[in-house]
Amino acid sequence: MIYDLVIIGAGPAGLTAGVYARSRKLKTLILEAGTAGGQLVTLYPDKGIENYPGCVLTQAERLARRMTTHALSMGCELHENERVLDIKDKEGHLTVVSEKAQYDAKGVLIAIGIGLFKPKKLGVPGEKEFEDRGVCYKIPDKDRLVDKRVVFVGGGNSALEMALIAAQVAETYVVHRRDKFRADESVVEKVQNSRIKTILNAELERIDGKESVESIVVKVGPEQERRTLRVDAVIINIGFTPELEDLERWQVELEDNLIKVDTSMRTSRKGVFACGDVVTYPGKYKQIVTACGEAATAANAAYKYMMKPYWA
Ligand SMILES: Cc1cc2nc3c(=O)[nH]c(=O)nc-3n(C[C@H](O)[C@H](O)[C@H](O)COP(=O)(O)OP(=O)(O)OC[C@H]3O[C@@H](n4cnc5c(N)ncnc54)[C@H](O)[C@@H]3O)c2cc1C
User: Fold this and answer.
1) pLDDT tens, 27-66?
2) Ligand 1 in contact with 60 (CB < 6 A)?
3) Which are the contacts of 210, defined by CB distance < 8 A and separation ≥ 6?
4) Model confidence band, residue 1 (pLDDT cutoffs 50, 70, 90)
5) What stretch(es) of the chain map to CATH 3.50.50.60?
């Protein structure tokens, strides 16, 4: 059996591509290393999404579940907990090799988002020692933060949005090394109007504790004045480092560790398309709505590729 399209990753990009591929009646398989929904379910399920058209405010997890239901209702086959390892050429088509099986496909669409990317580490004393004992790189279950003292390190949307979720139940600090946050103005405004205490121009120097995290030391301002904060959790969100191994094996041209695509979302490899957070092109903006838009283009380009010569 040969699939028309195998989609790697079931985040907003992969699920939307599935919807579009099925509207062209392509036999479509989506392979997902974890749970369908991507970052919305793994990184920020409780967060409110306010910029997805048609939804004034919706919870991230709910939006992701709706996208999954949509893809399934269109007739996509979805395998969760099945990570893709390789894409091989085979007699005029492609074979997608996962950790469980191999699938022949006429086209492949890579939509792995930041899934193969590891969170960047600060490299400060105590960070490694207390990993999973108070130090983590994504927001823990909100229930586990109730009445705790948590500090977020970072100044982008991701760190501040996670801090806003934590602030609903916990005493929350944000430490950022610059004098201004990088996040969107609307997010910064929410932080300013919240109970979050921000410490700018500050660097985390070390994390201390016994069984788990108990305190941190930060160096603040040009004088590098040292302050000790009593905290139960340190959530570090300073970006992601790509794990290039898999992508390199997939033989697609990379730029800044992301997949280079043209305006039709074609990669450098014949029959292989890509969309969402894993791609780069001039003006790329990493958002749900752009991932979905690129997915529509990519699925359509894959269809045209399979139907060659295409007449439209
Ligand atoms: C804290 C935070 C808040 C955000 N808030 C917003 C917001 O309010 N609005 C907005 O528009 N955007 C927001 N974003 C950005 C948005 O989440 C991303 O742009 C979007 O998720 C990208 O979708 P994607 O499908 O490309 O990737 P992802 O969501 O990362 O999905 C990729 C999927 O691929 C899977 N995968 C990875 N490798 C493999 C493999 N080898 N085999 C199989 N599967 C694999 C992963 O498990 C994952 O499920 C936020 C991001 C963060 C971190």
Assistant:
1) 999 999 989 999 999 888 888 999 999 999 999 999 999 9
2) no
3) none
4) very high
5) 2-117+240-306, 121-236
Q: How many CB atoms lie within 10 A of CB 306?
A: 17
| Predicted confidence band of residue 117 (pLDDT cuts 50, 70, 90) | low
- Is the pTM higher than 0.85? The answer reads no
The listed CATH number (3.50.50.60, 3.40.640.10, 3.30.70.2570, 3.20.20.70) that belongs to domain 121-236: 3.50.50.60
Closest ligand 1 atom number to CA of residue 84: 42
158, 186, 246, 288: which to mutate for ligand 1, most atoms within 8 A of CB?
Answer: 288
CB proximity list for 199: less than 8 A, separation 6 or greater: 173, 174, 175, 176, 218, 220, 227
CATH number for 2-117+240-306: choose from 3.20.170.40, 3.40.50.300, 3.20.20.450, 3.50.50.60.
3.50.50.60
